[in-house]
Amino acid sequence: KLFLEKNNYSFMEFNPLLIKEFTKSLTLRKTKTDKVDAFIIYQKLVSVPYKPNSKLFYHTYSIKSLSRLRETLVKQRSKYLIQLTNILDILFPEFKPFFSNHFGSTALFILNKYKTTTKIANMKDFESISKNSHGRFPYSKFVKLKYLAKNTIGESNENFEFQLQSVLNLYFEINSEIDSIDKQIFTIIKDLNPPTLSIPGIGVISCASIISEFGDISRFDNPGQMLSFAGLEPRIIQSGTMFANGKMVKRGSGYLRHTLMNVALVVI
């Protein structure tokens, strides 16, 4: 598709599921060859009006790739935080509940700098911690954390302390990659300046995911088609006098559905 756009060819995309359903409507036979597939695709093409993809396909494709990669990395980062929790439950179970944000920047800064309960119990550099928290970590909490570390019910263990440092390294590395992707997405979105960004409650990252997953909005004639594309509409069950709405169909892009569900709460 990138090759076609680069060489000034227009093209239109089809969901493979539509081709499959179209095939079922033509025949009950299960013959599948390259020749048969090509002829069926040709029949489908001539049966619908030609709506070529937007010339902005290259930018849309780039944002989609970056957004999906970011989503994958964010999920992996969350797994590292779960691993940190499991390790701290053994070494220092009082640590995570002590912080209202659990694994905010201050908590991770302390863990990465001091690593063991013994070092946390004897830490003296309050100034660096206060600077990292932008003054939101008072001296009283500093003293209390040292007390908890000194009297923890956790057990010191060299293997788990090694695991703690390894997981922290992986967390900060993947966090750095996410920051780099965010900067790249911000640059592309700034150039495109899409109208979606003007909606209150939708930020740059969510906007990037929405416009890249939907693609060319002009392909859709109404909001219902957009809901269907995202798999957000309810399944309709009707037979005779019986009519009911089933569960969400959940077809289409899971990335798009996840983003829309999240931003909907904020927008509301």
Q: Which features does this protein show?
A:
268 residues; mainly alpha
List the SSEs and their pairings.
Elements: H1 2-6, H2 16-26, H3 34-46, H4 57-91, H5 95-98, H6 105-114, H7 117-121, H8 126-132, H9 139-150, H10 158-192, H11 204-214, H12 223-230, E1 234-239, E2 242-248, H13 254-267
Antiparallel strand pairs: 1-2
Helix pairs in contact: 4-10, 4-11, 10-11, 11-13
Explain this structure to me?
- This protein has 268 residues and is mainly alpha-helical.
- It is 63% helix and 5% strand.
- It contains 13 helices and two strands; from the N terminus they run H-H-H-H-H-H-H-H-H-H-H-H-E-E-H.
- Strands 1-2 form a two-stranded antiparallel sheet.
- The longest helix has 35 residues, at 57-91.
- The protein starts with a helix and ends with a helix.
Could you report the average pLDDT, rounded to the nearest whole number? 87
Coarse structural class: mainly alpha
Question: In order across it, which strands form the biggest sheet?
Answer: 1-2
- Indicate the proportion of strand residues: under 5%
Low-confidence stretches: none
Helix fraction, binned, reads 55-70%
Main sheet properties? 2 strands, antiparallel
Compute the number of helices.
13
The 3D shape can be described as elongated
Q: How many extended strands?
A: 2
Q: Could you tell me how far the N terminus lies from the C terminus, measured between alpha carbons in angstroms?
A: 37 Å
Please state the CA-atom Rg, rounded to the nearest Å. 26 Å
